[in-house]
Amino acid sequence: MASICFYFQVHQPFRVKDYRVFDIGRDSEYFNDDSDRSINNKKILNKVANKCYLPANAVLLELLNKYPEFKISFSFSGVFLEQLEMFSPETLESFQKLVATGRAEVLEETYYHSLSFLYSPEEFRRQVKMHRDKVQELFGVTPTVFRNTELIYNNALAVEVEKLGYKGIIAEGADHVLGWQSPNFLYKPKGTEHLKLLLKNYRLSDDIAFRFSSRDWADFPLTAPKFAQWANQVNGNGQIINLFMDYETFGEHQWEDTGIFNFLRHLPEEIYKHPDNDFITPSEAIERYEPVAELDVHNFMSWADVERDLSAWLSNPMQHDAIKTVYALEEEVLSTCDNKLIDDWRKLQTSDHFYYMCTKWFNDGDVHKYFNPYNTPYEAFIAYMNALQDLRLRVIGHPSYAKKIKVKELS
Amino acid sequence: MRVLMFGWEFPPHNSGGLGTACFGLTRALSNRNIDVLFVLPKKVGVAASFMNILFADERKVKFLEIETTLKPYVTSEGYVRERDKVVSDIYGNTLMQEVRRYALRAHELAKKESFDIIHAHDWLSFLAGVEAKKVSGKPLILHMHATEFDRTGGQGVNQDVYEIERASMHYADGIIAVSNFTKQKIVEHYGIPAEKIIVVHNGIEECDYVNIPDKLSELKHSGQKIVLFAGRITIQKGPEYFIRAAKRVLEMNPNVLFLVAGSGDMERQMILEAASLGISDRVVFVGFLRGDDLNAVYRAADLFVMPSVSEPFGITPLESIIAGTPVLISKQSGVSEVLVHALKTDFWDTEDMANKILGVVSHRSLWETLRGNSREEVKQVNWDVASKKCIDYYEKILCACGIPSETRHI
Fold first, then answer.
1. In this predicted complex, what is the ipTM?
2. A and B: number of Cβ contacts within 8 A
3. Any idea which architecture A2-295 has in CATH?
């Protein structure tokens, strides 16, 4: 039996505008660029909604209606849902329709798509709770499976997630962790009791997400029958094929003219041609299958770049400086009890900000540059640090901050 | 292959980047087994013998001298001033006369020598290249390091200079531009078809910048940050934008020192500008520097700024990076085409310039990341790569001119 488990990550950050040093103390709106640049959040959201979210949702709804056993899952970041509410309610509605079928599972993550687990476990728990509430509010469901930002994962995270009450967790099926073992089974994370681990089959996932339209690829063009045939090969030596990818694969990374929507439209019928195949959601997979072994992941892994580690967000001195600076503000920011201030601080935790500062592959003109709305990682850093400096001033200038200092002095 | 090259004096006796570029290219060509007959404009009494010691195999490069008072970057007025100091009456009375006299001497010289192709650097030597082609029938390649539009910042273009550039480029068999930025100018202002121009970016060799002395350390120890401008203080280099950005930076952070290294026709104006903005104590004019002194200033600085209005290439940012100091360069420069790991700005956007300067002086991590990445990057920008492109281009032009390879020298 081979069960196809589709999971789509849907996320858009609040990008920081070209915030200059002279704006510090004068302008506390960091995310409201309204130019033609790709840091204009509203513009980007609407562009991606038209190219990807709306047409892809239409295809999926069509498939859910046509095949009563077809299933998918989504992970929406809270900042993405917030932008849908602000800029594109019709897109939110189309996602709600999918979830209402009962066959589109929603996964848990941190509301702010942050790296908080690495820097502040308390803040991590707060953001998970916020996400849970947001999903309940918009979709009326409560997630039972967790996925961390960009599939960042290690044993300690699994232990924490189990404590929070989740039944399963999702991670990258990285070679350096799996070795000879297959991603097509469930595993038990080291140190947990009942938690089950689903691993991404990165070869088959990336065939769709990255290689679909690549003419240099020996298997170009990828068709639904061809892909179904590869999936069938798992039959007999695996239970589940985890196809995890950015939802923007459909229409945004792979444009419509590559045929990606047609591929998606015809995939279920090809998969169903083999009687042993079906589609499942992560929570169903957890119900149905038992772990085959324990998996020990001591160091953090992720689904980014060939290294599958943290280097996309944390490899150069700027990135480390920026992230340490934002988390160093935690106690003072929270003590203000000022919701706008706390929300701005949290929006500055979104992992994308640090990704934009990555210089690792910058001169190769590859994916990092493609996904970078700033001219250079250096400009991303300067704008970010300027905004953070303004946020600091807001904290120091806050009435409750002055009160706190006084209390400290008295004691 | 043997190249007749009309070039300019090498470091350390040069002024500006043209001599440095001629040296880097000639050395790299000789390392790739190309013979160079290097024609050197010389004032009476200065020998070329020292030039030979610069090359590992001096048989590959032979120097031929022509006596002249021409030197790079000279203006018509500057020439006449210099001319008056010389007693000899062999030189032309005006710059144009001297350029033509130089071309006639080049004609005589080319008649005597044998070579396969002619390569001339910048307009002062273009007529010499044209004469050499006329007398020898060999293909001519012109190397554009700067156009008249760059030198004048587009204001007050000298019609005679423009005409020499334009006519020579139309007459030549091929043109090398030091950047896409320059290629674009040649197409737009001179009506040359883009197919006739190739881009060969300049290079730099790390080995030429070893043992940089650690001077000026007392300035560093006082805890202040140093931001450097180095170049001719002239309209092309945008010194006034540097001063205006300095004013904005100092409003936010008074503990920054701005150094201006160089001299030029706008020096006095810039000193007055700094004074009228009330920042004279924070802007230091250190005069023209070269060699170790210049390298020491690069090294002492926290950031090098090149706000050029129009910079065909711009070698100084690369020198600064090799000395260990990251750079902020104007987008209106050729060097920005080869540097990814640099801060970039429009020369007129002094707010953005100040924002980026403050970014570097406020955040050590930014400085460190830029510094590390740019030092790696600059290794790819070398003369060997440039010389390879030139040789391939020589071959292409010779082929296009119907000259078979059997007839070549060596």
1. 0.90
2. 71
3. Alpha-Beta Barrel (3.20)
